[in-house]
Design brief:
Elements lengths: L5 H31 L23 E3 L3 E5 L5 E2 L3 E8 L7 E8 L2 E10 L8 E8 L10 E7 L12 E8 L1
Parallel strand pairs: 3-9
Antiparallel strand pairs: 1-2, 2-4, 4-7, 5-6, 5-8, 6-7, 8-9
């Protein structure tokens, strides 16, 4: 006498197929995750075309888990401006946080920086981004770079932002 009838064996076969597909999917997802979360560029020394060796300058430390390597407050800059540093994982949402460039109250550009490694951590994660104004900025113009931490909740107590005074070249 068979243990399972034809209907049960058909259901068992379908269940095995679904489980096999799920296992294959999760295996491929884990392989992709291990590849994407690995070191992106072990030789990245945060240099830019305008400043060939910025890695030797100390980062500017802001409270609340943000360190800015380039540009530093008071720097004379040119565009496109490369922004690099490190931030704790809570600054990011989906691996990014916002940048804005102002001349006084006038918004000149918006952009973002992206985490260079896995960002869902309480530790520091390196970031890099680029911002470029929509119009020409005259030489010696006083500018403000705004770094704004991600706040998907919209709650005021979760807002984080810092201003960096700069001068255009």
């Amino acid at each position: 006498m068979p243990l399972l009838g034809p209907r049960h064996s058909q259901n068992l076969f379908l269940t095995c197929c679904v489980l096999s597909a799920c296992i294959d999917y999760h295996f491929l997802a884990l392989i992709g995750l291990s590849i994407s979360c690995g070191p992106k560029n072990a030789t990245n020394n945060h240099t830019s075309p305008t400043n060939p060796d910025l890695s030797s300058r100390p980062a500017h430390r802001f409270p609340e888990g943000l360190e800015l390597s380039t540009p530093l407050p008071g720097d004379t800059i040119e565009f496109p401006l490369i922004v690099t540093g490190r931030a704790k994982g809570y600054w990011y949402f989906e691996g990014d946080f916002q940048l804005a460039l102002y001349q006084g109250d006038q918004l000149l550009a918006e952009s973002y920086v992206s985490a260079l490694d896995a960002w869902m951590t309480p530790s520091f994660v390196a970031f890099e981004g680029e911002i470029n104004p929509r119009q020409t900025v005259p030489s010696a113009t006083q500018l403000t770079l705004l770094l704004q931490g991600a706040n998907p909740s919209g709650l005021k107590q979760n807002e984080r932002q810092f201003e960096v005074p700069l001068v255009s070249e």
